[in-house]
Amino acid sequence: MLDGLKNSLGDAIKKIVKSSGIDEELIKELSKDVQRALLQSDVNVRLVLEITKHLEERALNETPPPGLSRKDHIVKILYDELSKLLGNESEFDFKPNKQNKIILLGIQGSGKTTVAAKLAKFLTRQGYKVGVVGADTYRPGALVQLRTMCEKSGVEVYGEENNKDSPSIVKNGLKHYEGEPLDVILIDTAGRHKEEQDLLDEMDRINKVADPDLALLVIDGTIGQQCFNQAEAFHKTIPVGGVIITKLDSSAKGGGALAASAATGAQIMYIGTGERIDDLEKFSPTRFVGRLLGMGDIQAVLDLAKRLEEEGDDVRMKRISSGKMNMEDFLSQLEEVSKMGSLQGILDSMPGLSGMVKGDQVDQMEGRVSKWRYIIQSMTKAEKADPEGLLNSSRIKRIARGSGWPEGEVKELLKNYKNSKSMMKASKGRQMQGTLRKMGLG
User: Fold this and answer.
1) Residue 282: which residues within 8 A CB-CB, separation 6 or more?
2) Please, what CATH class does the domain formed by 298-438 belong to?
3) Any idea of its EC number (predicted)?
């Protein structure tokens, strides 16, 4: 995600960390490096100057709090200032006992239809009942695409294939859902451009018919600074209440899109990080900046710990934390972590590990987890309960044959299981810095 910006900021921080001492010249050099990194990533010039001005002033004048070195304090100041640029974390303010209407706006090709389906699934998983109105009458196949994607989440889509009048489709769609026990109605509209006045006029008519509770602007993360003007034009037509950025998985110019919320005064609420319907995540400025600076995502690690503890069986967690973990518990932990997504995503969110493990190493790790699953499933119940006491050479041979993997892999699993067991006992099952070792991957 935004690899160019991440690498440039990482290089700037390394200069500070490796320096023998901090002086005014070094701080000004850091400021210039940060300016260069942000400008190359297409962040608005005015915002760049504002950030680096505050960075210099605070780095020169603030006294680090007790226990924090001056170098660490300067990195924290940079973290704070970049987080401020991106605003605060935002939540939808859904009103109970009514159908909350959300309209999606954006220029053509920004990914609105895909976002509508992703958001429908995201909200459904949060327990909301969702309906969708497909009012994109300009792009051939938009309604079919929307229905196909929403079908996977069990979300109904209202649309009229032969009607080209978007405002009437929205009106009919809202009437169709009247009386339905829905919490949210998402309205997908056709892509606009700030120069296409007739389309913006139509958007105004849709807005009057829909009377939405929230207008979300969907911005393509690859278009750079253009999106500042686009956002401004949309905001003048319909007040934008939130921003969703798409295609941040591949963009080197995402800085422009991230700063576009300044044009509307609206917060970034969600970011799209891939093609799959699950690749939409709630946007957290502090997490995002943590990843950019290679500092990891402390909150993500805490969330992972909480999820593992909440979803794990109480008896199992007590057994694990007391150092009595068996092989079934070990497999359960592997399964729980795999629910969180790819290992690369978990690694990128870990303080001290972000960016340190290469893609091919991650692939090897994920392959190893898959092997171990088969090996553990080839053990008897007694062997899973007491692998250290029962697994002699003849049993290892049998398990290897049953799983289809060499004996060496079975021994490797046993070695990592023992290491994990010791680590879990020492950390009482909660020290998530050791998640890799807990998974037997350390």
Assistant:
1) 89, 269, 270
2) mainly alpha
3) 3.6.5.4
Q: Within 248-358, where are the H helices?
A: 254-259, 261-264, 285-292, 298-311, 314-321, 327-339, 343-348
Q: Is 192 annotated as a binding residue?
A: yes
Domain 3-85 in this protein, CATH class:
mainly alpha
112 is in an annotated binding site: yes
- Averaged over successive runs of 10 residues, the pLDDT of the chain (442 residues) comes to 67 76 86 85 79 90 74 79 72 82 84 89 90 88 91 91 90 93 92 64 84 87 69 77 76 56 71 80 76 56 49 63 79 61 51 51 67 88 91 93 90 87 62 42 40
- Which CATH fold would you assign to the domain 100-285? Rossmann fold (3.40.50)
Please state, in angstroms and rounded to a whole number, the distance separating the CA atoms of residues 339 and 341. 5
Q: What is the C-alpha to C-alpha distance for residues 201 and 213, in angstroms, rounded to an integer?
A: 20
Q: Is 396 annotated as a binding residue?
A: no
User: Does 247 carry a binding-site annotation?
Assistant: yes
255 annotated to a ligand binding site: no
- Element spanning 281, H or E: strand 280-282
Reported residue count of the chain is 442
